[in-house]
Automatic annotation (TrEMBL):
InterPro entries associated with the record: ERG24_DHCR-like, Lamin-B_rcpt_of_tudor, Sterol_reductase_CS, Tudor
Similarity comment: family membership: Belongs to the ERG4/ERG24 family.
E.C. number: 1.3.1.70
Encoding gene per record: Lbr
UniProt subcellular location: Cytoplasm; Endoplasmic reticulum membrane; Nucleus inner membrane
UniProt membrane topology term: Multi-pass membrane protein
Biased composition (Basic and acidic residues): 101-112
Protein name: Delta(14)-sterol reductase LBR
TM annotation in the entry: 212-231, 251-273, 294-313, 325-344, 455-475, 481-500, 521-542, 562-581
One GO MF term: DNA binding
Location, primary (coarse class): cytoplasm
Organism encoding this protein: Bombycilla garrulus (Bohemian waxwing)
Upper taxonomic lineage: Eukaryota, Metazoa, Chordata, Craniata, Vertebrata
């Protein structure tokens, strides 16, 4: 096995992938298996490079030759002179006319101009901080509104100019001259905009408290769900009034579990229907793009039709309310079984298909975060399916069941105004998510996190049974509100929804097609990755305006429950904690990814979620 040539901490010159440009980098680590060096550039960007792409600083010297001091035209003319002939006389038979002399002078000027044009290109090879920033998409001005510059940054300089630089200046030792053609061919290959392949590495930074924290969450999350549901059934759901524990045999019902399985399979059938468009997701680390069928809204329409048929034949939908705890236990058991299956199959998954956040080598941590990024059975994407279908659509069905249960228990001809507001607000949120289903492909859940217990439990248990907490609370604790109060709460929800939807639309449209003429008015900060950081619109107001809109809507969903107990406000309290933690994860991830550009963005947009507060 060949040994490593460069040590950790050593400052060397690293070639930027797909180019002939070398920059000063520092070696941070070495992978003995893949034989790759992890190096860090001055702007904070970290890349994995082969040993052949790394040179010592001492090898970057100008080659001393006659070509560096004299022009080609002068050398060619000196060779044609005789020792006895006057320097001013041309050779016999080669006396030049006046026009030929002028052409010769023009050629000399052109050659000098070409040499001077090539010199600034050579300067880029020097490890200068300013030049590094400029190459990495960080110009002297921190903002741009010409969206085409992102695309231009990804294009290469003309091949002729690069070839001329390689011929006139030696940036390598003489024994490496034979590699010129290989470098030049690499340039031409890069013109096809072939993505740079990245070899997945082990997860070094553990989140959620590492192994101990994730193990604690695996016990705490189900316990929290059961505690909230038991509290809602009490006449006095105050925090100090701890509910009595039910008998274990009362928590499980095979019929309920069968109904849950039937629901899951029904949504899977709707997912597989050949309706809706097929789109590509963001590029994976290998450069491959997965295909997804966008038909969540159609699945919602079909589900609504199926529920309508059941109600027409007088099916008692409030059965969900009567066995709500048993449904939660069944969903928890199913999510645990699904998580075990996902982890077992991930052990045979190729290295490039593992999640960057769940490849630590620790069983508990990888089981919780998710070891495989996009587990699929054929074309059936398990993570993408669970993200929006069974839990999110199930949330709406549960709310409807609570509405019908309220009418039955309290002998109402129409639902209460509070119940109507909660159902309407949350129905709008779910329909919006399904209508804009394609936007979920750019979220951290799809692009970064693996599919393990965290997402399986969150999608199938936490979302439908905790997000419907307000409707479940109102069944046992009816709250009367006036029409003016209802109108004020509606306005608050509309404000939150407008911020949430417009901010997400700006981000998603810019990520999909930054060169869209409709986005020409948006300003952004270019980054070394070729992407831009928006600094206008909602994204120039706070760094996460979509989180701000989410929190405002969460408050509007809880207000119809009144102020007698804090229990219905658990959702908004939890949601603030969740989004603050997710924002911290985003900050850490973006700082590593974008380097100095992210620091400039933070200076330009100082507030994270709440303007002038946080």
């Amino acid at each position: 096995m060949p040994g490593r040539k460069f040590a950790d901490g050593e400052v060397v010159m690293g070639r930027w992938p797909g180019s002939v440009l070398y920059y000063e980098v520092q070696v941070t680590s070495y992978d003995d298996v893949a034989h790759l060096y992890t190096v860090k550039y001055k702007d904070g960007t970290e890349l994995a490079l082969k040993e052949s792409d790394i040179r010592s600083q001492s090898s970057f010297k100008h080659r001393k030759s006659q070509s560096s001091s004299s022009s080609p035209s002068r050398r060619s003319s000196s060779r044609s002179r005789s020792r006895s002939r006057s320097p001013g006389r041309p050779a016999k038979g080669r006396r030049r006319s006046a026009s030929q002399s002028r052409e010769h002078k023009d050629d000399k000027k052109k050659t000098i101009q070409e040499t001077s044009l090539a010199l600034p290109v050579l300067v880029l090879f020097k490890p200068s901080e300013n030049n590094t920033k400029r190459y990495n998409g960080e110009p002297e001005s921190t903002e741009k509104n010409d969206t085409s510059c992102i695309i231009l940054e990804q294009k290469l300089k003309p091949d002729l100019e690069i070839k001329r630089v390689l011929e006139q200046y030696s940036l390598r030792s003489r024994k490496d001259d034979k590699r010129k053609e290989e470098i030049y061919s690499e340039k031409k290959t890069l013109v096809a905009v072939k993505p740079i392949e990245k070899v997945p590495t082990k997860t070094k930074e553990l989140e959620f408290g590492g192994r101990i924290g994730t193990f604690t969450l695996m016990l705490l999350l189900p316990a929290t769900v059961f505690y909230l549901l038991l509290m809602c059934r009490q006449d006095d759901p105050s925090l100090l009034n701890f509910p009595p524990l039910p008998a274990l045999e009362s928590l499980w019902d095979w019929r309920v579990f069968g109904v849950f399985l039937l629901w899951f399979l029904l949504q899977a059938v709707f997912y597989l229907l050949p309706i809706g468009k097929v789109v590509e997701g963001l590029p994976l680390s290998s450069g491959r793009k997965l295909q997804y069928r966008i038909n969540g809204f159609y699945a919602f329409i079909l589900t609504a039709a199926a529920i309508g048929v059941l109600l027409y034949f007088q099916f008692e939908l409030h059965y969900l309310h009567d066995h709500f705890m048993q449904f939660a236990v069944s969903a928890t058991a199913f999510s645990l079984a699904l998580s075990i299956y996902l982890y077992v199959r991930s052990l045979k998954a190729p290295e490039e298909e593992l999640a960057p956040s769940g490849n630590s080598g620790y069983f508990i941590y990888d089981f919780f975060i998710g070891h495989e990024l996009n587990p699929r059975i054929g074309s059936f994407d398990l993570k993408y399916f669970c993200e929006l279908r069974p839990g999110l659509i199930g949330w709406v069905v549960i709310n409807l069941a609570m509405l019908l249960a309220e009418m039955k228990i309290h002998n109402l001809s129409v639902p209460s105004l509070s119940m109507i507001l909660v159902n309407s607000f949350q129905l709008l949120y779910v329909v919006d998510a399904l209508w804009n289903e394609e936007a979920v492909l750019t979220t951290m859940d799809i692009t970064h996190d693996g599919f393990g217990f965290m997402l399986a439990f969150g999608d199938l248990v936490w979302v439908p049974f905790v997000y419907s907490l307000q409707a479940f609370y109102l069944v046992g604790h009816p709250t009367t509100i006036t029409w003016p109060v209802a109108a004020a709460i509606t306005v608050l929800n509309c404000i939150g929804y407008y911020i949430f939807r417009s901010a997400n639309s700006q981000k998603n449209n810019f990520r999909r097609n930054p060169a869209d003429p409709k986005l020409a008015n948006l300003k952004f900060i270019p980054t070394a990755t070729g992407k831009g950081l928006l600094v206008t619109g909602w994204w120039g107001f706070v760094r996460h305006p979509n989180y701000l809109g989410d929190i405002i809507m969460a408050l509007a969903w809880s207000l119809p429950c009144g102020f007698n107990h804090i229990l219905p406000y658990f959702y908004v309290i939890y949601f603030v904690c969740l989004l603050v933690h997710r924002e911290a994860r985003d900050e850490h991830h973006c700082k590593q990814k974008y380097g100095l550009a992210w620091e400039r963005y933070c200076q330009r947009v100082p507030y994270r979620i709440f303007p002038y507060v946080y």
